[in-house]
Amino acid sequence: LMKFEIRGENYEIRPYICSPNTEFPFYINITNLCNAKCDFCCNNNKDFRKLDMDFLKEALDIVSNKVSRISISGGETMISTSNLEKLLNLVNSYNRCITMNTNGSFLLQSVDMLNKYENIESIQLSRHHYDDDKNNEIFKIKTLSFDEMKNIRLNSDLRINCLLIDGYIDSLDEVKKYLDILAEETNIYQVGFISMMPVNEYTKEKFVDYRDLIADIGDEFQEVEIMADGDRCSCANYFYTSKCGRELFVYFRYTKGYGCSGRSLFFDCAGLKEGY
Predict the structure, then answer these.
(1) Which pTM does this prediction carry?
(2) Using an 8 Å Cβ cutoff, are 231 and 254 in contact?
(3) Which pLDDT tens digit goes with each residue over 47-80?
(4) Residue-wise burial string across 56-74, b where 16 or more C-beta atoms lie within 10 A, e elsewhere
């Protein structure tokens, strides 16, 4: 149990039951704004007040030595380059691993800026289908194509997160097809397949449980680790050997919901709270 007092408020962070350690992730929601219009998203897409950078610095000064990584999310994290640079200038100074989530719309024009920050470990690209047209259909915008990905020269790793959605990527065969295409057409080596949180009617109707998919997983997948934190979340990690012979690290994950009981700290325009 890790305890902190920040601006008179007490925070208690408990390690994940499946992976006990003395560090925890620190999540920062930089904005609610997003150019995509995904049916699965619970984001209200309304701009909110800018982050209180003084408060954020004060919190990080106290907890950063216990932080395993700083994860920046949104909305769309790259929708405002100036706001993102201000945030990166601050969090990069703590010498902690930084990860970022993005739909990729503004990634090509942001590469030079991102490459200035040596602590960015990975850019997590949301890409929910191997077919460009179907991916565009899900996001309701033109998204980054595999051809465009080949031209990205990031100093950090580019990784893929794919939601499992009924009617799109919804079976083990579809997962393998996605991985084989990715291995053949890109240099990406890490891919996550994620069961949606039941946050609205769409996610409930289109929900795919990854645990059903991997029940009869084939020899192409070499198990690394399977973990669960009670019934709140679970994950399964594998190495996958693609048809072209390239090996990919693949993880499956499900989180039951956005809890506010301490596995991490979460910061947005409303301030600091305990997160899932």
Answers:
(1) 0.93
(2) no
(3) 667 899 999 999 999 999 999 999 999 899 999 9
(4) beebbeebbeebebbbbbb
